[in-house]
Design a protein that fits this description.
Amino acid/polyamine transporter I; mainly alpha
């Protein structure tokens, strides 16, 4: 049972995670304050670097997609894709967005719209709404998926074309990686980033489900009920990951896409359709026109608290998630060309994001237009209820809220099971065949660990602690990915 486990990587990761859990639980009263201080220091000191790297990876992806390397097949010239295009997109979308898009799809545009930190005094409704949508597109669009694309391509190329194990250390060669502990250190950084990145999403999802059930008066909203939801979803994720990639994860991903399409269609056709379409066209055009200025804005001459809580948090989240999503999309992308891989992992998901944000965001802003502060007040008081306050304005609102909770639940499970699968692959022995499922014991341990860490973070400071954990783990991995991109380019040119 234990022969296919990489002992150093597994034990070292477990020790570090256990130490974090113990320190947080022992100092529970001080944890919230400490998390906030760490987040502030990292954001203030390294914010410019995170923004620079995120833009650099987008440029790098565009270059690779149309370079002389674009026709290289991941797995060799004779390799054939393992999954259809529909299943491929469904799985990477479910793993890469999931809970986050449901949590912020309505809330973020409304919060940006109502924020005094980013608007000029006396700005019109139209200008405020357009900027709010532009920023939402910035945070969920090309940059994040470019980060996923770079890391995913590194995993895929070095594993399938260089016949190396699914590990971050496989990206590098040199004096540092010749030492076993050098390789272990690189892999453990990726494992820790993955674990905390996924735990953050699970915590957000549990908060949203709890708020939704409380809003519908089905379950009293409390910390203990949130913990109960985390436990239930962890067990469901455990069951799914035990079934494996081609059964549990694949089927749940397909279900996610179907349910999301239904909810999207209801909001589009049942809401202000013409207003949404007008907004979609204007928002996308404005976003593309202002992409350079939006993506390089560090708020260097202003109070940076807004930037720290939004753009830097998101970019760090993308980086923290990148080993998880990158490895996962690499695992399902065997047989695809570099160009197909990058277009599929950057352009297609970004387009889906623009559509989702455009429909839900513009419909929410329309509610604010016809009834000022109807949404913004509720969302500023409790961001987790945003989707449910929004859906209350539609016919059969209870039914729609139930559908939304179901979608959040399934996304929650796909994030949990995909995360457990990926972390298992990172801690499996290098003898493990890349097409085989990692050892069962690893999948079980990591599925349970994700739930435990989410609970600890919620206990230690709620959403603030979740955000801090992402930034703390995302920053070092962002630097690591920049060296990985250099190594990839060097190997492609050989």
């Amino acid at each position: 049972m234990f022969q296919n486990i990489a002992p150093r990587r597994f034990i070292f990761s477990i020790i570090l995670i256990s130490a974090f859990i113990w320190i947080t639980l022992v100092n529970l009263n001080e944890a919230d304050k400490l998390f906030a201080e760490i987040q502030q220091q990292l954001s203030d000191g390294l914010g410019w670097l995170i923004i620079l790297l995120a833009n650099g990876f987008l440029v790098f992806v565009i270059y690779l997609a149309f370079s002389k390397h674009k026709n290289i097949i991941l797995g060799g010239q004779d390799a054939k894709p393992e999954f259809s295009n529909i299943n491929w997109i469904a799985m990477l979308f479910s793993a890469g967005l999931g809970v986050g898009l449901l949590f912020y799809g309505v809330a973020e545009p409304v919060l940006h719209f109502s924020s005094n930190s980013i608007h000029e005094e006396g700005a019109s409704f139209s200008d405020k709404a357009n900027l709010a949508m532009n920023l939402s597109y910035l945070h969920w669009g090309f940059h994040g998926w470019a980060i996923y694309g770079v890391v995913g391509l590194c995993f895929a190329f070095f594993t399938y074309n260089r016949k190396l194990p699914f590990r971050v250390s496989s990206f590098f060669s040199g004096r540092f990686t010749k030492n076993i502990w050098g390789r272990v250190s690189l892999d453990v950084i990726a494992i820790i980033a993955t674990i905390f990145g996924i735990a953050t999403s699970l915590g957000l999802g549990a908060n949203q489900i709890n708020s939704g059930l409380g809003y519908m008066e089905i379950l009293e909203e409390s910390f203990m009920s949130t913990i109960g939801i985390v436990v239930v979803i962890t067990l469901m994720g455990l069951a799914s990951v035990v079934l494996g990639l081609k059964v549990g994860i694949k089927i749940l991903s397909q279900l996610n896409i179907i349910l999301c399409t239904i909810l999207l269609a209801i909001v589009f056709f049942g809401g202000p359709t013409s207003y949404i379409l007008d907004g979609l066209v204007q928002n996308l055009g404005s976003y593309l026109q202002n992409l350079l200025s939006l993506s390089t804005n560090t708020q260097g001459y202003l109070d940076s608290s807004w930037q720290n809580g939004w753009t830097l948090y998101y970019y760090s989240w993308w980086f923290a998630w990148s080993p998880f999503v990158g490895l996962f999309i690499a695992r399902i992308s065997y047989g695809r060309s570099i160009q197909e891989f990058l277009i599929g992992t950057v352009l297609v998901p970004s387009s889906i994001v623009f559509l989702w944000m455009g429909v839900f965001g513009n419909a929410a802003l329309y509610q604010e237009f016809i009834e000022p502060n109807s949404l913004s007040t509720a969302i500023n008081n409790d961001i987790a209820v945003s989707l449910f306050v929004f859906l209350e304005q539609f016919p059969f609102s209870k039914l729609l809220m139930g559908l939304a909770i179901t979608i959040i639940l399934t996304f929650f499970v796909t994030s949990s099971d995909s995360g457990a699968l990926v972390t298992s692959m990172l801690t499996a022995s290098k003898k493990e065949n890349t097409k085989e499922e990692p050892p069962m014991i690893l999948r079980v341990v990591w599925a349970i660990s994700l739930g435990v860490i989410a609970i600890v973070l919620l206990a230690g400071g709620g959403i603030g602690a979740l955000q801090t954990s992402v930034i703390v783990t995302g920053v070092p991995f962002a630097i690591l990915v920049s060296f990985a991109a250099k190594s990839l380019l060097k190997n492609l040119n050989q």
